[in-house]
């Protein structure tokens, strides 16, 4: 509805929370920062991709977020450090040290050394992340990155494997994705440790105090899925005073990048913008969304979902640059917070 004399547009949001994974979540966050240059933005980052390799604790999604927003990312790949060197990996390989399938660059390793040492000294991941962010986000004090939890949670994937007696095998999500290239059939996705996890300090307060909550178009199964599965977070979304707006990462029936199409069927969700919208569900029912954005290519799904009770807006959702992303997040917020009747 266009604003006219009889309506006042909603004021710009001042406190925004973004639920995010790695590459998609970081691009999205860039757009959110561009859309509202005055807003304070809190990212609740997925930590279920975390893994320990060569004694180093690695948090891929947090690091991608810090590197991307701090200007340290390899822009072409979308992850890892730019100007990266690979000497340490070569030396590890020369020792035959396993695994060799996970690329660890020299600059990146410095991050993991700082983190691993601090964790070993008893600091929780949220405080470690603050220390890492003090470097990367020094020029961006209005952005805060919180791990979803300080507790250890890891996504494992149960894959079909005819070489084992049971015909199946559990592998860490990183092994499934990086080493096996998401090729094996997926029977189940398990977030090991999630039942005992609690939201990291600041997470529930940020959700309660937000005036806008956004679900990035991150992988619904292994990025947004674990965040929502941390006991307490889903409930906090359902009771939040702020509108909750989700953005589809499935465009025209396929993910823009990544392996969501391999994982969605394993949790019984159709690989489509409509399928993911129904999976999150409307807050007016038992779900978490007040509004759902789908790509212009999925316009037909918008009408169907709206009829089912999920207000859905179709528009171009490609994150070609922060300005393009800013256009659709602004539209999403306006859709969820329409202009009010003038006083
Ligand atoms: P990861 O943790 O590095 O895998 O990254 P995320 O989970 O944060 O993001 C991956 C998801 O982002 C994938 O499911 C993609 O479909 C989605 N994605 C990537 N680029 C775009 C884009 O330009 N537009 C939209 N709408 N989704 C995107
Ligand atoms: Ca990830």
UniProtKB/TrEMBL annotation:
<keyword id="KW-0808">Transferase</keyword>
<dbReference type="InterPro" id="IPR002882">
    <property type="entry name" value="CofD"/>
</dbReference>
<dbReference type="InterPro" id="IPR010115">
    <property type="entry name" value="FbiA/CofD"/>
</dbReference>
<dbReference type="GO" id="GO:0000287">
    <property type="term" value="F:magnesium ion binding"/>
</dbReference>
<dbReference type="InterPro" id="IPR038136">
    <property type="entry name" value="CofD-like_dom_sf"/>
</dbReference>
<protein>
    <submittedName>
        <fullName>LPPG:FO 2-phospho-L-lactate transferase</fullName>
        <ecNumber>2.7.8.28</ecNumber>
    </submittedName>
</protein>
<keyword id="KW-0460">Magnesium</keyword>
<dbReference type="GO" id="GO:0043743">
    <property type="term" value="F:LPPG:FO 2-phospho-L-lactate transferase activity"/>
</dbReference>
<dbReference type="Pfam" id="PF01933">
    <property type="entry name" value="CofD"/>
</dbReference>
């Amino acid at each position: 509805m266009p604003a006219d004399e009889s309506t006042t547009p909603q004021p710009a949001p001042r406190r925004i929370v973004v639920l995010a994974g790695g590459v998609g979540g970081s691009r999205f966050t860039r757009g959110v920062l561009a859309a509202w240059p005055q807003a304070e933005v809190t990212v609740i980052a997925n930590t279920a991709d975390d893994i320990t390799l060569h004694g180093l604790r690695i948090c891929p999604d947090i690091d991608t977020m810090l590197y991307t927003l701090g200007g340290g990312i390899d822009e072409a790949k979308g992850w890892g450090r730019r100007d990266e060197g690979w000497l340490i990996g070569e030396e590890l390989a020369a020792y035959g040290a396993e695994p060799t399938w996970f690329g660890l660059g020299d600059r990146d390793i410095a991050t993991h050394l700082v983190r691993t040492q601090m964790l070993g000294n008893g600091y929780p991941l949220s405080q470690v992340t603050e220390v890492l962010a003090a470097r990367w986000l020094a020029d961006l004090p209005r952005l805060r990155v919180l791990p979803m939890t300080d507790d250890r949670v890891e996504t494992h994937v149960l894959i079909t494997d005819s070489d084992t007696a049971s015909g199946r095998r559990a592998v860490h999500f990183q092994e499934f994705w990086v080493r096996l290239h998401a090729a094996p059939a997926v029977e189940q996705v398990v977030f090991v440790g999630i039942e005992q996890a609690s939201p990291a300090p600041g997470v529930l307060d940020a959700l309660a105090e937000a005036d806008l909550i956004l679900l990035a178009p991150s992988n619904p199964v292994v990025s947004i899925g674990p965040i929502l599965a941390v006991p307490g977070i889903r409930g906090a979304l359902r009771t939040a005073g702020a509108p909750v707006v989700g953005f589809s990462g499935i465009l025209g029936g396929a993910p823009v990048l990544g392996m969501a199409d391999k994982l969605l069927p394993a949790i019984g969700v159709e690989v489509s913008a409509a399928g993911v919208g129904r999976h999150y569900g409307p807050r007016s029912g038992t779900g978490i969304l007040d509004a759902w954005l789908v790509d212009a290519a999925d316009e037909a799904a918008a009408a169907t979902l709206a009829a089912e009770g999920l207000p859905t807006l179709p528009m171009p959702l490609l994150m070609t640059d922060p300005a393009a992303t800013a256009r659709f997040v602004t539209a999403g917020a306006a859709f969820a917070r329409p202009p009010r009747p003038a006083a």
